[in-house]
Amino acid sequence: MPPLPRNPPIAAGGNPKGCEHHAYRCPLLSGDIAWRATDAKVEGTGDSVTERAVLLRAGRPSFLGGAMHHRGICHKSLGEARLLLVAMAVVLGLGLMPVKATAQQASDQAIAETSQAQDRLMTAAPVNPLDCFNVTATVSLSGGSLEAGEFTFRLTDSAGSAMQVANQHSDLTGKNNYVNFEIPYGQVGTRTYRLTQENNPRYRCDTTVYEVTVTVTQDMLGNKGASVTYSTGGKTVSQAAFSNGPLPPPSGQWVHEGGVTRYRTPQGTYASGWYTIDGQTYYFDTSGDHGRRTGWLQQGGTWYFLSPADGHRETGWIKEGGAWYYLNPSTGAMATGWAWVNGAWYYLKGSGAMAAGWVFTGSQWYFLRSTGAMATGWIWTGGAWYYLAPGDGHMYRGWGFINGSWYFCDRSSGAMKAGWIWDGAWYYLYSSGAMAHNTTIGGYRLDSSGAWV
After folding, report:
1. What tens digit of pLDDT does each residue of 386-396 get?
2. Residue 363 phi/psi, 5° resolution?
3. What is the rounded radius of gyration, in angstroms, for the C-alpha atoms of the chain?
């Protein structure tokens, strides 16, 4: 083979050991040749020489005529043998080619063995870029537009070794994004790979792992082909697809120190006043230690109740200190007076506690059952019957026309009367409370108004 071109020696002063270094150019095949670094000592001289390696793996498998392989040639004087130290090379599956040299063999053996390695390198057939199979995946980003190179993907073999690393690119329209790996066919048979996406801290990245199964075949003419299938979670899919999205908004953090519970906001400050966290509202002191409050809290003349367990603002019915309270379902404000809740009227005292039994308000009496719900119609309590208006629940006193009959309820207590009563005239009320009229009771005649005549 013709000698490889070599560059001029490095000028004196550029080499601290005073050695002459040459750089030789030779064609390398991406993914097929790896020069490994090795350190060696020149026997008999005490000189140490290091061979620096070049490793070509990722990228498009093609004939790289301009790739560089550096080898060092070191000599102290013209009288000394020139020693060539070369790393081991792996060339297209031809195996390891150890190149050894000693001070005694320097010029002859080292250069001869190096030439053999170069001969095998130069005569190795280059890989045709078309003799590759493709591993592809689509890439999408919700809530935003993709730019080429934003996401990185890794293809590893069954042993977990990286085959290639690639970034996503846009197609000709600029609307669809994909990632593509070109892998030489290699040996006939079936191989498996893993396709994954590397994390990008600026996005929420899809962590799906795809298993890629490749079956390489060869016909009688030596032409190779490959079929590629994708699966994930044990199920075969038509293609590998990664769906990325924006990161969730930054969250704050609860801080418990010295018996005080605070909340550090995403902006780094402590929450103050009313503050909503994960759908629950809390109150934090506006001065001092900014501690979270619990229990009853009065703000702007309104009372609120904060859970003793975690401090969140309660709403709806709560039982505290043996009494029931109703807190506005939207604001949490404690209710007082009349409240319409789930189809019934309730009365909350000035303290907010739910009333039960008789309540006198607005010059009228009302009766609230043990549940707190306002009663209407006839009720029996305290050994007497009472009638409460069907509409607003107020207690009847005096005469009342109910269901086609007249009844009389005590003008003071509201209790229903029965028997003979005096109310400007004598009337008779049956045991049901209904007034008798147009009849004779005990020899006494009652007219149409019910009065004794």
Report:
1. 999 999 999 99
2. 70, 15
3. 48
Indicate the CATH number for domain 253-314.
Answer: 2.10.270.10
In the three-class reduction of DSSP (H, G, I as helix; E, B as strand; rest coil), residue 106 is classed as: helix
SS3 at position 387: strand
Q: What is the pTM of this model?
A: 0.50
Is 399 exposed, middle or buried (CB count within 10 Å of its CB: 0-12, 13-18, 19+)?
A: middle
Select from 431, 355, 421 the least CA-distant residue to 393.
Answer: 355
E strands, 363-411, in order: 364-368, 377-381, 384-388, 398-402, 405-409
Q: Is the dihedral of CA 378, 411, 358, 364 positive or negative?
A: positive
DSSP line for 110-126:
IHHHHHHHHHHHHHSPP
Query: What Å distances lie between residue 20 and 71, 83, 161, 358, 389, CA to CA?
Result: 11, 11, 37, 112, 116
- In angstroms, rounded to a whole number, what is the distance separating the alpha carbons of residues 22 and 427? 135
CATH number belonging to domain 132-246: 2.60.40.3050
In angstroms, the CA 216 to CA 128 distance is 16
CATH number of 376-446: 2.10.270.10
Question: Is the Cβ–Cβ distance between 395 and 365 less than 8 Å?
Answer: yes
Q: Tens digits of per-residue pLDDT, 247-268?
A: 887 789 999 999 999 999 998 8
Contact 177, 138 (CB under 8 A): yes
Do 363 and 344 meet the contact criterion of CB atoms below 8 Å apart?
A: no
Reduced to 3 states (helix: H, G, I; strand: E, B; else coil), residue 320 is: strand
